[in-house]
Specification:
The protein has 278 residues and is an alpha+beta fold. The protein is built from 7 helices and 11 strands. It folds into 2 domains: 114 residues, no CATH class; 106 residues, no CATH class. Helices cover 29% and strands 30% of the residues. It is elongated and about 85 Å long. The N and C termini lie far apart (56 Å).
């Protein structure tokens, strides 16, 4: 990426009988087993004192086609691309923090947010200026010392940088299993968004429980159709629908091969073998 400088020195170390990668990246050493483990440990040494930070990657996020970069610093430190929908849990001054990024699509501005708790009270600060700006606002709230925005957010974590780069367009994925993983991830985000909308629009009963459930959605993907199923149907519902399909096939004199071709073109239908064995 233009304007991005990456300095990497990689070594290996055994930790809990697992081969870990240790990479120096922007003066930090990261001990990790990412992506098998979402936990990353950062070591930083200054004036012969060792500082240790801990990160838990909740959402890796993705790089837009033209990602924003962290601001240039006076000491000419590296600039790092900023992922969209990135969420990380970390610690600072004995506080557990949730740091998030979100691109505002129209203006392509990044909104940086830090959430934390004090007792039962929840606190939050946001900024569209930079990660350092929101960190400075956070530090003012807790009356603490200076900290680096990119480091607190973990933008300088080398394994995350490479993991984000590996998330390419769907067209670049040739493996069906990998494509299905992408669709499953997409489906989870859709399910979460729909659940929130159901609550927002109060599509619930008197107890506040949802009365609408997302079952499946379909998409045209070039010459193929993609159907994502969400809610498992119970055995009685499946039996009723299979009875109806078999009845229609008998009435229309639709053969087994004919239904197989129909099910191939309409992914929301039951697979042919389920109907044949019914």
């Amino acid at each position: 990426m233009a304007g991005t400088t990456v300095r990497v020195l990689i070594a290996e170390r055994k930790f809990n009988n697992t081969l870990l990668s240790i990479a120096t990246f922007s003066n930090c050493v990261f001990i990790h087993d990412y992506p098998r483990s979402s936990k990353i440990e950062a070591h930083f040494q200054s004036n012969e004192r060792l500082y240790i930070s801990y990160y838990n990657i909740i959402s890796l996020g993705t790089y837009p086609s033209t990602p924003k970069l962290t601001q240039k610093s006076k000491n000419n430190a590296s600039q790092y691309p900023i992922p969209d929908d990135y969420i990380v849990e970390t610690e600072f001054s004995e506080r557990s923090l949730i740091c998030k990024t979100k691109y505002i699509s129209v203006s392509k501005v990044v909104c940086y947010t830090i959430n934390w708790k004090i007792g039962h009270a929840e606190w939050s600060v946001s900024s569209t200026q930079s990660s350092t700006a929101v960190v400075n606002t956070f530090l003012q709230k807790i009356n603490s010392t200076k900290s680096s925005g990119p480091q607190l957010f973990g933008f300088d974590i080398e394994p995350l940088y490479h993991a984000c780069l590996q998330i390419g367009p769907l067209e670049d994925i040739t493996s069906c299993s990998q494509q299905n993983k992408r669709f499953n991830s997409f489906g989870r985000d859709v399910q979460k968004a729909v659940d929130e909308l159901i609550v927002k629009h109060k599509l619930t009963n008197l107890s506040g429980e949802p009365i609408l459930y997302l079952q499946h959605i379909g998409f045209d993907c070039k010459k193929n159709q993609v159907c994502i199923n969400f809610k498992d149907l119970n055995s009685i519902t499946i039996q009723t629908k299979l009875d109806a399909i078999v009845h229609v096939c008998d009435e229309a004199l639709l053969s087994r091969d004919g239904y197989r071709h129909l099910a191939a073109d309409v992914p929301s239908l039951f697979c042919e073998y389920l109907v044949a064995d019914h």
